[in-house]
């Protein structure tokens, strides 16, 4: 099979990085402004944790599957 172009995993990493940065940024804003959603367990700051996880995973995929790198 002929393999050329950019890996789909690179684009998945880009999306995870973008979503992670947006969610993480919102979580930090929510934490700094003391404006939390009125839900149970709001003190766990889920947007910060999930945004950070998505951001780290996205950056891993971006680095691992970046274009021009031999796999």
Which characteristics define this entry?
71 residues; mainly alpha
Q: Could you describe the 3D structure shown?
A:
With 71 residues, the chain is mainly α. The protein has one domain (8-64). Helices cover 62% and strands 0% of the residues. It has two helices and no strands. Helix 1 packs antiparallel against helix 2. The chain starts with 7 loop residues before the first helix and ends in a 7-residue tail after the last helix.
Shape: rod-shaped
The average pLDDT score comes to 89
Q: Low-confidence segments, ≥5 residues, pLDDT <50? A: none
The biggest sheet, with number of strands, parallel, antiparallel or mixed sense and barrel status, is: none
Total domain units: 1
Helices and strands in order:
Layout: H1 8-32, H2 46-64
Helix pairs in contact: 1-2
Short note summarizing the structure:
The chain has 71 residues and is mostly helical. The chain contains 2 helices and no strands. The longest helix has 25 residues, at 8-32.
